[in-house]
Amino acid sequence: MGEQMGIKVGLAGAGSIAFGTAAVLHEAGHDPMLWSPSGDGTAALAKGAELHAHGAVDATLAPRIATDAAQLARDNEVLIIALPGYGHKAVFDALAPHIEPRHQVIISSHASLGAVYLMQLLAARGVTVPITAWGTTICTGRRQSGTEVKVNTVRSRVDLCTVPDDRSAEGLSLCQTLFGDRFQPRDGLLAISLSNLNPQNHMGIALGNITRMERGETWSQGQNVTPKVGRLLEELDLERLAIAKALGLEVKTIFEHFHLSFHVPVASISEMNQKMHEQGNGGVGPATADSRYVTEDVPYGLVLTAALGRLTGQPAKLHEAGIRIFSAMYGRDFEAENEILRALDLHRFSLDDLKRAAKTGVLHQPAKV
Ligand SMILES: NC(=O)C1=CN([C@@H]2O[C@H](COP(=O)(O)OP(=O)(O)OC[C@H]3O[C@@H](n4cnc5c(N)ncnc54)[C@H](OP(=O)(O)O)[C@@H]3O)[C@@H](O)[C@H]2O)C=CC1
Ligand SMILES: CC(C)(CO)C(=O)C(=O)O
């Protein structure tokens, strides 16, 4: 995998996380390249402007820019998928024909068994590579313009797993080489899916603040995790933890999540968020109802957790209610919007099939009856 430093990393995406991750990689001496699927996200950088990161990372860099998926794969040894779940299928479809055995793929953050979908595309070409799924992102932040990103935090811990699981050591070692000793290996893709706290947290945050979002207000996210919103997040967390327990999987609690990601002492979730607000990394809430907090996290997050709740006999009633309430508010069927679960035809598989696929990355066709 090349030299210890200066690894060429291709990022699919040119939004907040792709920009922030490029800055983190640059600071660690690596060589990032960005690919904006439409070209819009990198228009200014492609004309020669520099990318400025400020906040938890202060850096100015001139990342390489890819014109298409083929170039991103050709010019890099590592590919990081760094865009919302609703773009994953299109990006996997575009990249898969160009991925070769020399590559490693990281999905940041992994959504709805996307790693299984990508493995399936690669298997059709006879290619296997280590695909590492992260439960979240290495940093948080907001892209401020085509050349600027504010990085709010660089996380101390990110949960990961690699499929197929016999390539786990390669996946972990690569992540450590790129980003340092920040990774907590977890037991397969179901653990990683249940390690992503955004869907449940964003459900509570968006429900509590939907009028602010719809009216386009500017509002502090941390400050608006008020005691009642905080309690809803804690109750949502209990549903997720019950499913993980039924599956025999260890995942972090919401308290550990905020502590490790935002460096605040453990207290109630509302108190931890107030502290984040005070120390300046509480973030800014979405200023539009057309936000991935709903359009990504409901179909690609809550829907999978709710399905796992049904399969494990641990019904996630609040998660289920969230899917219905947001679908009613938006006049959309968010359950039907998940392109990856639809392509995998999840309903045909048993819990045992999913448990196996969580390790191998392969969903075997159920036997015909
Ligand atoms: N920002 C944060 O602090 C955090 C983000 N995350 C997660 O990280 C991931 C990335 O988030 P973030 O960078 O903030 O998101 P952004 O909305 O900033 O990502 C924008 C990028 O996504 C691309 N994109 C959007 N829709 C599609 C599509 N349908 N097909 C292909 N590409 C698409 C855009 O393409 P184009 O360039 O063509 O416009 C652009 O490059 C998400 O899963 C998010 O939930 C998790 C925790 C924190
Ligand atoms: C703001 C933050 C870090 C917490 O909700 C986030 O997860 C996001 O932007 O997706």
UniProtKB/TrEMBL annotation:
<dbReference type="InterPro" id="IPR013328">
    <property type="entry name" value="6PGD_dom2"/>
</dbReference>
<dbReference type="InterPro" id="IPR003421">
    <property type="entry name" value="Opine_DH"/>
</dbReference>
<dbReference type="InterPro" id="IPR036291">
    <property type="entry name" value="NAD(P)-bd_dom_sf"/>
</dbReference>
<protein>
    <recommendedName>
        <fullName>2-dehydropantoate 2-reductase</fullName>
    </recommendedName>
</protein>
<dbReference type="Pfam" id="PF02558">
    <property type="entry name" value="ApbA"/>
</dbReference>
<feature type="domain" description="Ketopantoate reductase N-terminal">
    <location>
        <begin position="10"/>
        <end position="107"/>
    </location>
</feature>
<dbReference type="Pfam" id="PF02317">
    <property type="entry name" value="Octopine_DH"/>
</dbReference>
<comment type="pathway">
    <text>Cofactor biosynthesis; (R)-pantothenate biosynthesis; (R)-pantoate from 3-methyl-2-oxobutanoate: step 2/2.</text>
</comment>
<keyword id="KW-0566">Pantothenate biosynthesis</keyword>
<dbReference type="InterPro" id="IPR051729">
    <property type="entry name" value="Opine/Lysopine_DH"/>
</dbReference>
<dbReference type="InterPro" id="IPR008927">
    <property type="entry name" value="6-PGluconate_DH-like_C_sf"/>
</dbReference>
<feature type="domain" description="Opine dehydrogenase">
    <location>
        <begin position="186"/>
        <end position="329"/>
    </location>
</feature>
<dbReference type="InterPro" id="IPR013332">
    <property type="entry name" value="KPR_N"/>
</dbReference>
